[in-house]
Design a protein that fits this description.
Chain A: Its main location: membrane. The complex is a heterodimer of chains A (about 300) and B (about 300). Chain A is mainly α and about 300 residues long. In chain A, about 75% of the residues lie in helices and about 0% in strands. A two-stranded antiparallel sheet of chain A has the order 1-2. In chain A, helix 2 crosses helix 13 (about 280-310) and helix 5 packs across helix 8. Chain A is flat. Chain A starts with a helix and ends with a helix. Chain B has about 300 residues and is mostly helical. Chain B folds into two domains: about 1-70, no CATH class; about 95-305, MetI-like fold (Orthogonal Bundle), CATH 1.10.3720. Chain B is built from 16 helices and no strands. Chain B is globular. The chains are: A mainly alpha (about 300), B mainly alpha (about 300). At the A-B interface, helix 2, helix 4, helix 5, helix 6 and helix 7 of A face helix 1, helix 2, helix 3, helix 6 and helix 7 of B.
Chain lengths: ~300, ~300
Amino acid sequence: MTAGSGGRTGHGELAPTTRRRRRRLTSRAVAPYLFILPNMVVFGLFTIWPALNSFNISLYDSGNGRRFNWVGTDNYREILSDPEFWGVARHTAVFVVGFVVLVTVAATALALLLNAQVRGRGLFRAAYFLPVLISPVVVGLIWNWALERQNGLVNTVLGAMGLGAPGWLLNPNLAMGVTIFVGLWTHLGFYAMILLAGLQGIDPSLYDAARIDGAGAWQRVRTITLPLLRPTTLVVVVLATIAGFQAFDFIYTLTGGGPVGATTLIVQYIYLKAFESPIRYGLASAAGVILFLTVFGVTLLNYAIGRRREAI
Amino acid sequence: MSTLANDVPADAAGARPTSARVGRPARRPGRWTSIGGRPPSTGIVVRTTVLTAGALAVLAPVVWALLSSFKSPDELARRPPTPFPAHPSFGNYAQALTSFDFGRYFLNSVLVTAGATALTLAINAMAAYALAKYNFRGRDALFVVTLATIMIPLQVIFLPVYQMVSSLGLVNSLWGMIIPPAATPTGVFLLRQYMLTLPDETIEAARIDGAGEFAIFWRIVLPLCRPALAVVAIFSVIWRWNDFLWPLIVAQDESVYTLPVALARFSSQLVIPFNLVLAMSVLSIAPVVLIFLALQRQIVSGIAQTGLK
């Protein structure tokens, strides 16, 4: 290092230490930009620029999929007056609300049970986490097969108990219920792990104090565990909401969006507008922008409600 | 449901040595009326039963798929279905491996997963370090932008992403599947949260000792972040191994198919029998499950320490 700086002759007045310090300061000022650069290049090229470009495309009509004519906000107007879009929006809302509520409650219950369980905890944790590891494509395939009306696992078990054989994937309401359930099945273990980590961060001496004060078991859950767990619960609600709005892969192989579009959610709507004839890139991009704004708004709302509750 | 929740914290706290000292002497038979007047051991039995029943229900379809993958096509079509294969055989696997270029798809999946995970760890960790331990102009804006993109699914922007990948000549190349998803916002977030907890004094001391900025990152910060890196690595492996839509778009040539793409093609072409789809599904699940089982302890402790709380 000193040999390197000594090589530049003619500025010998600076003492080596001063020079080194100055050089260190420069490198310290430049270092963060160099550290963040590779990530930001990949990020910019494959996320930020396409996202902005997506907004740009949404202002054009793609016609036959090649020609782009500026149409301003026409795509947005068309979507917002399209009954198909509102049907999809309603299904998406039902799915997201059902999924988020069920997965949060179930994951909290599971985390509480796992936290209390001493024997075989690792085994249970692994069992409940297994579906997280499976490709959504395979999840959809397996459940589609398990829910088959005639010969599926579910109806075989129900038949053995004399409970009939519902057409899970043929009835629109049942299909939506099944889709929410499979989403729950896929994600439960992941959110339970996050909540379990939160539970283990709660100071056990609080429970002792509460017990000495005569608090019952349910009271301790309600007054200590749940309030202290709230920041973690907020993270889970936010992540689950985003995941709910993005659900696509497993539904594609589970129901294909059917029956009669009952489980076609917003991402599939976008996918169909972009890929199926007549190809409408502009319209699909506009729907994408609407989706982004919705998710963004709901996330901010989640945080606002979560924070306010925390303050009370 | 409520009885389950009721006895949880008692046992949760009771399992810890400190509270056992405080809690046990105070226990009187009458205190357990909240769970129906049963002694605590009943609570444990109930809890274990519920956890076991739930776990079996969660595992059932996967186990059934696994068992069925050893059945002959005739047996698969039988009604009612048999719980266990009558004549278990690897016939479906052998047929799947020989009928299709399975080895190539598997290798492609391994290469994409390994390459993308290595790249993700490298660039996410560097970015996280800059965000966690430096003050520089634009830092907070970059962090907010990074977080905001968690809300942009690929499904929404795949068209412009595809245009970009195409203009860089990465279509039909494994690099096209490795590079675009590598800058994960989740990875940056998790690593940054973890790095915030590292003491500044350690880094400052190294600077005074004359260590360069990259040397500090490489020799001091990264080793301290091992638990967080393990979490990001396992999540990256799960994501990339199971990715579907993006590889489907990039891999238009069969020679660069990954497993999920091949699988989706098999199942969508109804000419391919379901027994082969089953065998390939099981084979595609196996590696990730094995990695998870091997690293489970690190993953769990990593999640606990990563600030996801």
